[in-house]
Design a protein that fits this description.
45% helix; alpha/beta; 3 helices; 3 strands
Length: 88
């Protein structure tokens, strides 16, 4: 199985993200694209961004129409782990 990964802030997710993902999937002969929404991107640390939960839901809604698209929570899990490590 060949899987592509598309990460980004998806703040908000839009048609451009979906078009790029689909074009890459077709051209590279991938089975699916894994979308990885960023938690709080380091480049936007001083800017308000949509909270991760809303980004995840919006991204899921946009990609839900295609079986060849999946979503990953790896960025949220890594953010949570970093926060818990800082508290120690």
């Amino acid at each position: 199985m060949k899987i592509g990964i598309l990460g980004g802030t998806f703040d908000p997710v839009h048609l451009g993200h979906l078009l790029v993902a689909e074009e890459v999937r077709i051209r590279l002969g991938l089975n699916e694209i894994l979308f990885v929404p960023a938690g709080q991107p380091w480049l936007k640390i001083d800017h308000a961004t949509i909270i991760y939960g809303y980004k995840k839901i919006a991204t899921e809604m946009c990609i839900n129409s295609k079986l060849c698209r999946q979503i990953s929570e790896v960025k949220e899990k890594s953010r949570t782990n970093k926060a818990s490590m800082r508290k120690r």
